[in-house]
Amino acid sequence: MPRVKIGPALPDRSVLNVEIAHLRDLDISGLRAHWHSVFRRRPPPQLPPHLLYRVLAYRLQAERLGDLDSESQRLLDRSGSPEKAGHRAVDLSRCTASLRPGTMLGREWNGQVQRVAVLADGFAWNGKTYPSLSKVAFAITGTRWNGPKFFGLRDKSSRKSPS
Q: pLDDT > 90: what percent of the chain?
């Protein structure tokens, strides 16, 4: 007969809920003191109370219910900082404007409204089919343009603003 391994008993969630509720009642100095006792160092001075609370509550849950599995932890470690991930998401959305066939794009150029139809295999303008919006913009203006930018599908300036 195979052996059965019996794991530890499931934690009592009501005790955990009471501990988290206790954290909610602490003021900023109490949260900082609790942080110091949990992490054995002072919290970052710029961390606001709501983030102190969230990190401490997460730590309590991780201790009682288990932390992230190793695969999730590796995925988060590879993703880099949250700021960089946010910038990558914005840059990606800037590059991947989804246009469905049948969509009409409009742009005023030299006092005339130019209308372009989105097709399944390209873009139609003045009875001719083009493979890209950049080619359409070139046909309209006679100069090279970034097609999505010309039709207002991207930000006017892709440069970062000084902080």
A: 50
Give exposure, 124-136, as e/b (b: 16+ Cβ within 10 Å): ebeeeebeebbbb
Coil/strand/helix, residue 108: strand
User: Order of strands across the sheet with 128-130?
Assistant: 104-109, 112-119, 122-125, 128-130
Q: What is the pLDDT of residues 130-144, one digit of tens each?
A: 999 999 999 999 999
31-66 pLDDT tens trace: 999 999 999 999 999 999 999 999 999 999 988 888
- DSSP result, 109-134: ETTEEEEEEEETTEEEETTEEESSHH
Tokens standing for residue 73 = 């932890």
| pLDDT at residue 96 in the model | 46
Give the separation between CA 45 and CA 128, rounded to whole angstroms. 62
d(CA 65, CA 59): 10
Domain definitions of the chain by residue range: 13-67, 70-97, 104-150
Q: Is 99 within 8 Å of 106 (Cβ atoms)?
A: no
